[in-house]
Automatic annotation (TrEMBL):
The lineage of its organism: Bacteria, Bacillati, Bacillota, Bacilli, Bacillales. Reversibly transfers an adenylyl group from ATP to 4'-phosphopantetheine, yielding dephospho-CoA (dPCoA) and pyrophosphate. PANTHER family: PHOSPHOPANTETHEINE ADENYLYLTRANSFERASE (PTHR21342). This is Phosphopantetheine adenylyltransferase. The gene is coaD. GO terms for molecular function: pantetheine-phosphate adenylyltransferase activity. It comes from the Bacteria. Belongs to the bacterial CoaD family. Signal peptide: none annotated. It comes from Sporosarcina siberiensis.
Length: 160
């Protein structure tokens, strides 16, 4: 059985909460693929290429993590790389309902690919990319929310 797992997301930008989930998945699974999903319905601040580059930089010290991108269905991407599982992070009970819908649909599309949920560390339970972008846009302090390279990239985007 494949030991490849996918950690998907838009990662616009990657936060310390995302990084925590990736690191914890890397302790359990032998081959972690961080999939930057290109969702055309979202108005992204960073291009897919920029997001991939930022994630590659902040995960460079984790040898079993690779960063890729996909613009199709997550389940199709997972099948194409031979993944046996998907890892999703949960911050609060409110995330569970949405994630359950996605997981249920993925099981309809391919029941052989399992989904595992990792609860975020409490210190990141409020954290989202949207919140980080909003705080950064107005010059707020984000150094405890994102890796340094992401902080610098956000400041550059917002001309600070």
């Amino acid at each position: 059985m494949s030991k490849i797992v996918v950690v998907p997301g838009s990662f616009d930008p990657i936060t310390n909460g995302h990084l925590d989930i990736i690191k914890r998945a890397a302790k359990v699974f032998t081959d972690v693929r961080v999939a930057v999903m290109n969702n055309s319905s979202k108005n992204s601040l960073f291009s897919v290429e920029e997001r991939v580059a930022l994630i590659e930089e902040v995960t460079a010290g984790i040898p079993n993590v690779r960063v890729e991108s996909s613009s199709g269905l997550l389940i199709d991407y997972a099948k194409s790389i031979g993944a046996s599982a998907i890892v999703r992070g949960l911050r609060a009970v409110s995330d569970f309902e949405y994630e359950m819908q996605i997981t249920s649909m993925n099981r309809v599309l391919d029941e052989s690919i399992e989904t595992f949920f990792i609860m975020t560390n409490n210190q990141y339970s409020f954290l989202s990319s949207s919140i980080v972008k909003e705080v950064a846009k107005y010059g707020g302090e984000i150094s405890v929310l994102v890796p340094k390279s992401v902080e610098l990239a956000l400041k550059k985007k917002y001309n600070q």
